[in-house]
Design goal:
By secondary structure, the protein is mainly α. It has one domain. The protein is built from 18 helices and no strands. The chain has helices spanning 13-41, 44-62, 78-98, 100-104, 106-112, 125-144, 148-173, 176-202, 210-219, 222-248, 251-289, 292-326, 331-350, 355-359, 363-387, 390-415, 420-447, 451-478. It is globular and about 70 Å long.
């Protein structure tokens, strides 16, 4: 176990992650405190329209900077990194302008998607894309500068802006405008804040010469050529359910799926992104200084310990917990969540480590994986769509994604030259710690306790699991 406890990438790894996660926790707290109210103000159909809009922005944002934003971390000199930032920003503005036709021709586009009710909200696509792309780009720059408090502040600002607007509109006259408008205004507030915090350092020395931008574009051309299509395929495959469930079924099905996905993916995504940003910076250094294997195991261990029991609780008691939190109309979302939980646990663990593809410049291999992932997911959803089985579509999508991500995780360990023996040992030990609280929760569900009691039991079981982790770590320290 000495290998696992090795200190890697500098003593500031944990404080850096903690700073980002603390800001993330505040942002999540605002969102989650409001969610039980929002789900009682807005219908599943309204959340379904939000889900499709958010999925569209998520896909476009993935390639909004030509993926050059992923190269911001790599130059040794800040001057060259600033040139990559300006290159990325130029592409972002250009792509945002290219989406204006989506707003102009919103009605025929929405009708072609068999979603005419989506048309009015496509007006906001260019603005939302510009803001979301700016946030993504500047977070990478601030990570390079180790200004993690600024990143955390941006995330808190986004939630603190979006949530009150969504609540205010919901109480006055609930419509998708409240949900989507709050989302876009929250993005705008965060983008403006991060720009204000970053611009002075980015603009040092004035605007770079065009020839320097072209030089950086050529130096990191593999990012748009391979990382771009790879990330686009990954994002599209993750967002496919929102599009295809809407196409084959209706907005209510998308609303239940979107709510299940958000309840699980948003927290693990924000925490995972926080870890990934710090891991990216440390891994880039470890590539030359050594210690990449120990850093990778350290990250894997913490994420698996954090994510295991919450996802097990969702598998065991998802419908009851979500019915209690969101209301009786949302029990179907809890059933969907059960089928997504294992996949999203693996995403939580693997997503920071996918930065290895960038650090080691294995972009072609990443593209091949994401192409296969997209093909598998699309096949499952289309086949179940023609069968008219929404639950089967979500279930098979979750299971297929879980198998693909398990294979990806093994591959990432191989890239980092990590032996699977300590990985399996850590997983087995954590599963043992989760067994007792999981059995207790399962017994409560089997006994037929009310959703409120099941929720309370899940919280107590989580505390028991956390105490077990602390006890095991204490024994390790004194061993």
């Amino acid at each position: 176990m000495r290998f696992v406890r090795a200190r890697v990438g500098g003593d500031d790894f944990l404080p850096s992650v903690t700073t980002l996660v603390s800001g993330t926790t505040l942002a999540l707290g605002l969102t989650y405190l409001a969610r039980p109210v929002l789900t009682r103000l807005y219908t599943p159909e309204m959340f379904g329209i939000l889900g499709v809009f958010a999925a569209l922005i998520a896909v476009l944002t993935t390639v909004s900077s030509g993926r050059y934003d992923d190269a911001v971390m790599l130059p040794k000199e800040d001057k060259k990194s600033r040139e990559v930032v300006f290159l990325s920003l130029s592409i972002l503005v250009g792509l945002s302008l290219l989406t204006i036709p989506i707003a102009i021709f919103r009605t025929p586009i929405a009708e072609s998607l068999r979603a005419p009710e989506l048309a009015p909200y496509l007006l906001l696509v260019p603005i939302s894309l510009l803001c979301a792309g700016t946030i993504r780009l500047l977070e990478v720059w601030l990570t390079r500068q180790k200004r993690f408090r600024s990143i955390a502040g941006g995330r808190t600002t986004q939630s603190a802006t979006a949530v009150p607007i969504q609540l205010a509109v919901g109480f006055r006259h609930a419509s998708p405008w409240g949900l989507i408008g709050g989302l876009v205004l929250g993005q705008a507030a965060a983008a403006m804040m991060l720009t204000a915090l970053s611009w002075r350092r980015i603009s040092e020395g004035g605007l770079p010469a065009w020839k320097n931008l072209r030089a950086q574009a050529g130096r990191y051309r593999d990012f748009p050529m391979f990382s771009g299509p790879s990330a686009l395929l990954n994002s599209m495959s993750s967002q496919l359910p929102a599009f295809l469930l809407f196409f084959f079924f209706d907005a209510a099905v998308v609303g239940h799926y979107a709510q299940a996905y958000a309840l699980l993916a948003v927290p693990i995504g924000l925490v995972g992104t926080s870890v990934a940003q710090v891991y990216f910076e440390k891994a880039a250094r470890c590539r030359t200084e050594g210690g990449l294997d120990a850093l990778t195991v350290r990250v894997y261990r913490r994420l698996f310990e954090i994510g295991l029991f919450p996802m097990m609780a969702v598998v065991i008691a998802g419908p009851d917990v979500i019915e209690f939190v969101l209301g009786a109309d949302w029990r179907t979302a809890g059933i969907y969540a059960q089928w997504l939980a294992v996949w999203l646990l693996l995403v939580f663990v693997a997503s920071p480590m996918t930065r290895l593809f960038d650090v080691l410049e294995k972009l072609r291999a990443n593209l091949a994986f994401n192409a296969l992932l997209f093909a598998v997911r699309a096949s499952v959803l289309v086949a179940c769509g023609f069968l008219g089985r929404p639950l089967l579509a979500v279930a098979l999508y979750g299971m297929a994604s879980a198998l693909m991500y398990l294979g990806l995780l093994v591959w990432l360990f191989a890239l980092a030259r990590v032996s699977l023996t300590p990985v399996v040992r850590l997983a087995a030990r954590t599963l043992v710690l989760a067994t007792l609280p999981s059995v207790a929760l399962g017994a409560g569900v089997a006994y037929g306790l009310s959703p409120g009691l099941v929720f309370g039991l899940a919280c107590l079981a989580g505390l028991l699991y956390g105490a077990g982790l602390l006890w095991a770590q204490g024994r390790e320290v004194h061993a």
